[in-house]
Amino acid sequence: MSIQIQTEPLTAGAFAPFGDLLDLTGPPNKMINAGLCGRYHDRAILDFAEDGRAGISLFDAQPRSLPYTFDLLERHPGGSQAFLPMTAHPFLVIAAPDEGGRPGLPRAFLTEPHQGVNFHRGTWHGVLTPLHAPGLFAVIDRIGSGVNLEEVRLPTSYTVR
C-alpha cells in the first residue's frame, strides 16, 4: 500500500524549509548590459564543505508521469544542490524534513515553467523528476573528495497525485 500525497505549488514560502526557489519573482535588482538585461542577483545560498568547490554539471533525466510512486530519498551532507531546468517544462520536486537523521513526511511541489530550486545542504529530497522530455537540467553542486550522497529507502512507498 502506498501513502498518497498531493502536489502543491512551488512557492518561496512553502519551499523555504528545504531550500531556495529560483525564479524571476519581483523586479530585477538592477539593469545591466546597457539596460537590456535585468539581473536577479544572488538568488540562492550555495553552501559547500571546505574540501569542495562549486561545479556545474548537466543532467539528462528520463521523464516520469503523475501519479508518481517513490520510496527513495537522498541528501548531500557536503553541499547544497541547485537544479535549473534547461526547458520551460514543469518538474516535480520532492523534499522532506530531517527527523533524527531520517527523512520525515515528504512533500511534493510542482514547478511552474522557468522555476528552479536549490536544496539546502543536507536536505532530504527525491530524485530529479522531470514530467516532460527532454529532462535537461544544469545542476550546481559540490565537487570534491569524500562521499556526498546518502540514500534512504523508505519503509513505505508514496504516490504523488
Task: Describe the protein's architecture and organization.
- This protein is an all-beta fold.
- The protein has one domain (2-160): Ureidoglycolate hydrolase (Jelly Rolls, Sandwich).
- Helices cover 2% and strands 52% of the residues.
- The chain has one helix spanning 12-15; strands at residues 2-5, 7-9, 19-22, 30-32, 37-39, 52-61, 68-75, 81-85, 91-96, 98-99, 102-103, 107-110, 116-119, 124-125, 129-130, 135-144, 150-160.
- Strands 2, 9, 12, 14 and 15 form a five-stranded mixed sheet that branches. The protein has a five-stranded antiparallel sheet with strand order 3-13-8-16-6, with no helix packed on it. A three-stranded mixed sheet has the order 1-17-7, with no helix packed on it.
- Strand 4 and strand 5 (37-39) form a beta hairpin.
Keywords:
161 residues; mainly beta; Jelly Rolls; five-stranded mixed sheet; five-stranded antiparallel sheet; 2% helix
Structural topology:
Blueprint: E1 2-5, E2 7-9, H1 12-15, E3 19-22, E4 30-32, E5 37-39, E6 52-61, E7 68-75, E8 81-85, E9 91-96, E10 98-99, E11 102-103, E12 107-110, E13 116-119, E14 124-125, E15 129-130, E16 135-144, E17 150-160
Parallel strand pairs: 1-17, 2-12
Antiparallel strand pairs: 3-13, 4-5, 6-16, 7-17, 8-13, 8-16, 9-12, 9-14, 9-15, 10-11
